Amino acid sequence: MFITFEGIDGAGKSTQVRKLRNLFLTRETEVLTLREPGGTDISEKIRELLLEGDSDITPTGELLLFAASRAELVQRVITPALDTGAIVILDRFYDSTTAYQGYGRKMDLDIIHRINSIASCGLEPDLTFYLDLSPEDALIRKFSEKSLPLAFEPEELDRMERSGLDFYTRVREGYLELAASEPHRFRTLDALQSPEELHRIITETVLASAGSAPER
Ligand SMILES: Nc1ncnc2c1ncn2[C@@H]1O[C@H](COP(=O)(O)OP(=O)(O)OP(=O)(O)O)[C@@H](O)[C@H]1O
Ligand SMILES: [Mg+2]
Question: Whose CA is nearest to atom 15 of ligand 1?
């Protein structure tokens, strides 16, 4: 079973990936958790290239590097693991590319869909949990994490860049459109719920789906 988590920065993806992984571990189910980009020798090298702050890469170049890293991960790691019957949990997959590059940066959605389809070699998640959080709530979460006052001043919002909020608003709209267009695999969850409640819902959904999932 192939499960992915999506959502804007700070929505709670890694928290839920950890909880779900622990659940499978306590049940002695073989589980593999991965992050993108990375996970193979070549993908880790691509990760270094992508995360180097000073490289002057074009948006197209960046899109293709992400895709190259994803193709390696899918063919070398994810598909072989699924073939052995393991559960694979991925913190972000191609929906992030569509939401961030497509909707956020306004790159051509048609091209992105084609590249996503090549990079994933046609592999589609069985379940995608989209943790829905408004950019404003994400910002509040970030501030409270740093123990800054919750009622932040407008000038502090300026520092966090208004344009950043517009970008994340587009990303969120993208995710909502994706979820609506592929309801067979997307589950949209209100990320403002407690981590425990979210984990409860996610566990229930995964177990129900595992019971009805066809053999690969
Ligand atoms: N349901 C929740 N309610 C409130 N706070 C949460 C919840 N889930 C996670 N958090 C907190 O919000 C912060 C971000 O969570 P997390 O790292 O899981 O998000 P993320 O989606 O993986 O973010 P990123 O995209 O930046 O990796 C952490 O401080 C975490 O403890
Ligand atoms: Mg994370």
Answer: 12
CATH number of the domain enclosing 12? 3.40.50.300
Ligand 2 centre to CA of 55 (Å) is 23
Does residue 97 fall inside a structural domain? Answer: yes
Structurally, the chain folds into a number of domains equal to 1
Residue nearest atom 4 of ligand 1, based on CA coordinates: 194
User: Does ligand 1 come within 6 angstroms of the Cβ of 158?
Assistant: no
Q: Using a 6 Å cutoff on CB, does residue 75 contact ligand 1?
A: no
- Tell me if 201 is assigned to some domain: yes
Cα-to-centroid distance, 9 and ligand 1 (Å): 8
Tens-digit pLDDT string for the chain (216 aa): 999 999 999 999 999 999 999 999 999 999 999 988 899 999 999 999 988 877 788 999 999 999 999 999 999 999 999 999 999 999 999 999 999 999 999 999 999 999 999 999 999 999 999 999 999 999 888 877 766 555 555 555 544 456 688 999 999 999 999 999 999 999 999 999 999 999 999 999 999 998 765 555
CB 116 within 8 A of CB 67: yes
Q: Which domain holds residue 86?
A: 2-211
Report if residue 216 sits inside a domain.
Answer: no
Give the Cα separation of 69 and 108 in Å (integer): 20
CA-CA distances (angstroms) from residue 142 to 34, 53, 89, 152, 157? 24, 22, 25, 11, 12
